[in-house]
Amino acid sequence: MRRGGGHVVRGSLEAEAMAILWAEAGPMPVRDVLARLNATRQRPLAYTTVMTVLSRLVDKGYAVRRPEGRGYRYAASAPDEASVAVREVLARHGDAAVAGFLTEVSADPDLLRRLRQLLGEGG
Questions:
Q1: What pTM was estimated for this model as a whole?
Q2: Most CB within 10 Å of its CB: which of 14, 35, 60, 119?
Q3: Residue 58 pairs with which residues in a beta bridge?
Q4: Phi, psi at residue 65, to the nearest 5°?
Q5: Contact assessment for residue 40 and residue 47, using Cβ atoms and an 8 Å cutoff
Q6: Cα gap 46→57, rounded to integer Å
Q7: Per residue in 4-22, pLDDT tens?
Q8: Which residues, listed in sequence order, are joined to residue 63 by a DSSP beta bridge?
Q9: What is the distance between the alpha carbons of residues 75 and 19, in angstroms, rounded to a whole number?
């Protein structure tokens, strides 16, 4: 779902499901995601609701699924929300995004130092 200036904003249930997938070490069946979501709710969610949310997350590229028996196991497609945001920017703007990033880094010595540290090149 997009809001305002094109920023991607997931619904709260999608955000909750992603938080669960990010916290888990491996792929999860719908029933496990459902159990965790319902652990803090007064009115429990239906299995089909969570299945639909997970399917939409796969369609949006936030999650991946693999078949298991008659169902699926779901996992996050990226390690965190920042990685999802980077993928979205690159998918939407491609080389222009990379060029813009490099221009910004080149113009800011502090940012260049931080990038070098992240890359393990020292400062």
A1: 0.73
A2: 14
A3: none
A4: -135, 150
A5: no
A6: 17
A7: 444 444 579 999 999 999 9
A8: 76
A9: 11
CB < 8 Å & 24+ apart, contacts of 118-122: none
Encoded amino acid at 12, one letter = S
Q: Determine phi and psi for 111, rounding to 5 degrees.
A: -65, -40
Tokens, residue 120: 């393990």
Secondary structure in 3-state letters for the chain: CEECCCEECCCHHHHHHHHHHHHCCCCEEHHHHHHHHHCCCCCCCCHHHHHHHHHHHHHHCCEEEEEECCEEEEEECCCCHHHHHHHHHHHHHHHHHHHHHHHHHHHCHHHHHHHHHHCCCCC
How many whole angstroms separate alpha carbon 60 and alpha carbon 72? Answer: 17
